[in-house]
Amino acid sequence: MYTTLRIMISPPQFALRTCRAMSSRFCLAALRPVPPRLLHGASPVSHSRQINARGLSTPAIAVPDTAPSTDTGKEPITPLVKEMADEIRFRGPLSVSQYMRRCLTHPVYGYYMQQQVFGAKGDFITSPEISQMFGELIGVWFMTNWLAMESPKRVQIVELGPGRGTLVADMIRSLNQFRKFQGVLQRVVLVEASPKLREVQLESITKAVGAAVDREERNEFKHLEKVWLTNGMQVAWYENLADIQEEDYTFLVAHEFFDALPVFKFKKTDQGWREIMVDVDDSPETPYHFRYVIAPEKTQSVTALIEATGQYDHHAEGDVIEVCPEATGYMHKIADLLGKCNGSGLIMDYGNDKPANASLRAIRNHQFTHLFSHPGLSDLSADVDFSLLKWSLEPYSFTASATSGKPLVKHWGPTTQRHFLARMGIEDRARQLLRAADTHERKMDVRTAMTRLMAAKQMGVVYKMMAVASGEIKGTPAGFELADFPSAVPDPQAEQKGPEAGK
């Protein structure tokens, strides 16, 4: 069993500029072992199998993201496959959004409802699962905002799609190292539908705060809804962000949440925009039961999501785009909550500041697989369009909020994960962990984690950070300064390179 150490670091200069009142040294979270799990699994940036939609010229043509199988046999017909195929034969093709939703959140056969999907035993690994440094520095970022807002006495953390609860647990450990913050955190609110993940999240949080469950409330399905811990803190679960009623100062975090929201796909043809949809594939030439087709006529989705917004008029014939209307809805809910609570939020995901065209992908057992292979057994995700997230906040801008009745909400970014973590002092934190590491293997784990999080060809550039905050906040939040910040990324193969113990 490893010894727990308390690590002290000097505050990065950017943090002092952000909050002059912060003159003491930063006290980061207790050092826990950095797990070697990052060495296993597909890198989320290796988008080597993407849908080539250029061949979608007629409703009868579908383009898989791999070459057709020479095996004439079809994959097994699972209950979910049968359910979707029957629906298509009765009502017509599904939108891509409907297909994603059924595969991910079907109450019985959905991917998120039936198995462990995070970490080395799951299908993918997220930044918080790679290293404690990620969650600790997110906690430090929220601390600088809290201090800049004159340290509200009551705080709640709200996380969208918290996975196993690793990120929020690391954040709590980091925040609780600040003496001024102790006793301030009143509750943790998790927007999570999966009953199994709720249990896992509670375990992560109780370990982080060192408290046991005092009493709990469950719904009619025996699923966790509210838990009171022996230290007085509350943990609550909601399926809808708008259901949160408490108005305490809010730290909101959404890490790899928006990428899992269902997207619609569209192609601009010689007849205008047409929706790409999912139809049954009875062909013996592929092992899959579904295929892409183009709707022969304009669908309601084209009218509502493309033509009504005017955002995509500049696209040329042949262009394919992915649009996520639920992202706009969530951004409105986030803005309403932060405006009401005077809070700040951090959105972290992979994507770009423009619409994606063919980013929708499936991951199973840490490998990219065909989008239509074994529905419900693979994780589906798409690149986040950060330009859409920012556009969604226009009703909350300084000019619009004066007449719309909406609260004033500001936003910054996106900036790269590499830039953000460098600004937050990840290299200083890595040096501390290296000094505390007592074996060569642990030192290598720290260096490998640093490379995985920061390297341009891994997570450092493809992952982006976007900040959102109530209009009361002054200045630019830490990590979102415009100037680039050079960062030495350690080589995991060479012990001599990167942050060294004692230096």
UniProtKB/TrEMBL annotation:
The keyword Mitochondrion applies. GO terms for molecular function: protein-arginine omega-N symmetric methyltransferase activity. It catalyses: L-arginyl-[protein] + 2 S-adenosyl-L-methionine = N(omega),N(omega)'-dimethyl-L-arginyl-[protein] + 2 S-adenosyl-L-homocysteine + 2 H(+). Residues 484-503 are annotated as: Disordered. It is found in: Mitochondrion. GO terms for biological process: methylation; mitochondrial respiratory chain complex I assembly. Keywords: Methyltransferase, Mitochondrion, Transferase. Its EC number is 2.1.1.320. Pfam families: Methyltransf_28. One of its GO terms (cellular component) is mitochondrion. The keyword Zinc does not apply. Its main location: mitochondrion. Arginine methyltransferase involved in the assembly or stability of mitochondrial NADH:ubiquinone oxidoreductase complex (complex I). Belongs to the NDUFAF7 family. PANTHER family: PROTEIN ARGININE METHYLTRANSFERASE NDUFAF7, MITOCHONDRIAL (PTHR12049). This is Protein arginine methyltransferase NDUFAF7. It comes from Catenaria anguillulae PL171.
